[in-house]
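Q: Could you fold this chain for me?
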Amino acid sequence: MQLSIKNMVCDRCIRVVRDELESLGLKVNDVRLGEAELENEPDSGKLEEVRKMLESNGFELLDDKKQSLTELVKTILIDEIHHQKGKKPANMNFSTFLENRTGYDYSYLSHLFSESMGSTIEQYIITMRVEKAKELLSYGELSINEIAWQLGYSSTAHLSNQFKKITGETPGQFRQGQQIERKTLDRI
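A: Sure. Below is the predicted structure, expressed as structure tokens.
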């Protein structure tokens, strides 16, 4: 049985979900960002235990197919932008990449995402990239130009413009002051 789980954003989330499901006595085949595969379908009582366990750990069990697809889009984008898995070819845009990964038309995904999240996929991508830029800037290891290139921006100016629209500061100002609070991935 496949479970769709909201707010899984990192390897620690995968570990927590696996450990918690196993502590409930369930046989877990696999756990990935946004989903867990169980060997058998739990009865309704056990499924309610799973739901409560997930909620107590900041996750949410998704029953709705549309919510599950929205979470899949978010998971793909988190993997690609934040965790920098590198599955998207540099010359491919995100709309084509999402179509290829989900098997759904981008216009359908976009409509569904906007309806569910209250913002567009494009805005989500920009916000995710800016959050990753904040992280990289705070480390101080890469130049702004290197960060722009690593995040797939066409230029440093493009990154700077989007960064300033979201944060109110340029990347350089952020690096000097670092007063802007970073957001956790599940809050984007």
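A (continued): The chain has a mean pLDDT of 91.
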